[in-house]
Amino acid sequence: MRSMTGYGKGQSNKAGLNLIAEVKTVNHRYLDVSVRLPRSLTALEIPLRKRLTERFTRGRIELSFTQDVSGAPATLVRANLPLAHEYTQAAEQVAQAAGLKSNLKLNTLLSLPEVLTLIPLEMEAEVMQEAAMEALDLACEAALADRLREGEQLRQFFLVHLDVLEDTITQLKEAAPQQPELAREKLQKRLSTMPDLAVDPQRLAQEIALFADRCDITEEINRFSAHCAQMRQLVAQETPVGREMDFLAQEMNREANTICSKSASLTVTQLGLMCKAETDKIKEQIQNVE
């Protein structure tokens, strides 16, 4: 089980090019990929997106790159000859005006501003892509490991609350056999307060029996118990199960509501509300599951 929340950082250094990739992932109903790249990497957006969709199946994925080319070598040194000539003539003019002999050395001339210009290396597209993919893969591995760690915490959370639910279901099973009789007694007590009501005894007996049958919660308890068992199986899986768990939680919530609506006693109502509360806690955290 993996969470949809995670962060990872990866770094690659090739031919003096230092790339840092950062991957941030948060909850989302589907897979939503966002990529922010420096201008030099914009041509790689499609392959980078494709790699992200291969590594993640659900969640909002945000990828960003930072680039440092300070260590990249130069391929060309360009001399500004007109500027060097101007420097030389200016030095001679100053020397003549001061009555001195011009002694401008070559190393001094070359060190003057903008006499020499370094042309940065144009990185080959293949090298750029290799470096970007390497940094991205490292960032993805770190983000996935982060999601896995949080997923394990979620797994323990679900197991604890499933234990509570199963214990509550056991109590409901003990209370369920008394439901029809309690419903029958409640209806008869209510009718006894209306002595002037003329009702056919046979018809009354049928209605009481039907009312009591409608208060039977055995089927709901069995379905709820089966849902809990299935949820426990999903929690144990390593593959993405968030959507299946979300659907199952909705079914569990529906059964809890039905149990409460059919309740003929305060005890069953309280137990049904407890089932609903625990299911809501599980459903809330399912939104974080991939």
Task: Describe the protein's architecture and organization.
By secondary structure, the chain is α+β, with helices and mostly antiparallel strands. It has three domains: 6-71 and 124-146, Ribosomal Protein S5, domain 2, CATH 3.30.230; 74-120, no CATH class; 149-286, Butyryl-CoA Dehydrogenase, subunit A, domain 3. 60% of the residues lie in helices and 16% in strands. It has nine helices and six strands; from the N terminus they run βββαββααβαααααα. It has helices at residues 45-55, 81-98, 106-110, 125-175, 179-192, 201-214, 218-236, 242-262, 266-286, and strands spanning 6-14, 17-26, 31-36, 59-68, 74-79, 116-120. The protein has a four-stranded mixed β-sheet. The protein has a two-stranded antiparallel sheet with strand order 5-6. It starts with 5 loop residues before the first strand and ends with a helix. The mean pLDDT is 85.
Tally of helical segments = 9
What CATH calls the topology of the largest domain is: Butyryl-CoA Dehydrogenase, subunit A, domain 3
The structure class reads alpha+beta
Task: Please provide the count of β strands.
Answer: 6
Provide the gyration radius in Å.
Answer: 38 Å
Query: Spans of 5+ residues with little confidence (pLDDT < 50)?
Result: none
Mean pLDDT: 85
Quick one: biggest sheet? 4 strands, mixed
> So what's the CATH class of the largest domain?
Mainly Alpha
How many distinct domains?
3
Q: What portion of the residues fall into strands of 2 or more residues?
A: 15-25%
Distance between the termini: 7 Å
* CATH architecture level-2 label of the largest domain: Up-down Bundle
Bin the helical content. 55-70%
**Principal-axes shape call:** rod-shaped
